[in-house]
Design a protein that fits this description.
single chain, mainly alpha, 0% strand, disordered C terminus
Length: 168
């Protein structure tokens, strides 16, 4: 059975709260609160140490913390609106530098704008419903995989840690 919480991941690695807290450079009481509340507020260094110690990815950590839907909401708003306003909130959620987040959001916003332009072009040209439906289906598929695409753009396509092995 796959661990679903920080506590379960820690126990699967046979780590005590104190030992894990020491490895990530956090006070054990502070870590215990984060684990119990399912809210992670560690800095970038602590986050890196946590995902390495528990064998997680940032993406998985965000899911464990229950922030996946919050991230998805920001991504949807960023692609359909003002992407720059979402750089800092997304960077805070994913613990990735703002430049990488901004680059990904700008790219995604441009890609999504292409769907809107094509759809409006077909609508204005009074094309048949088939083209409109195809474009709408492509747009829906794009929106359904926003989070996957975001992680691909920031360099974490799935389960692997985005940090280089042994790097600082």
């Amino acid at each position: 059975m796959e661990p679903r919480t920080l506590a379960e991941h820690r126990l699967a690695r046979r780590l005590t709260v104190e030992r894990l807290a020491y490895r990530i450079g956090m006070d054990p009481a502070e870590y215990r609160v984060a684990e119990a509340a399912r809210q992670w507020h560690g800095d970038a260094r602590q986050t890196r140490a946590l995902v390495e110690a528990l064998g997680l990815s940032l993406r998985k950590l965000i899911g464990i913390m229950g922030r996946g839907e919050e991230l998805a909401g920001h991504l949807r708003s960023a692609v359909s609106g003002r992407w720059k306003a979402h750089v800092d909130p997304v960077a805070e959620i994913v613990v990735v530098d703002a430049t990488s987040v901004g680059d990904a959001l700008r790219t995604m916003h441009g890609e999504f704008a292409e769907f809107s332009e094509r759809y409006m072009g077909h609508l204005v040209a009074l094309n048949d419903d088939t083209r409109l439906k195809e474009t709408a289906a492509e747009r829906a598929a794009y929106l359904n995989r926003l989070a996957d695409h975001f992680w691909e753009l920031v360099g974490e396509a799935g389960e692997a840690s985005p940090f280089p092995a042994g790097g600082r």
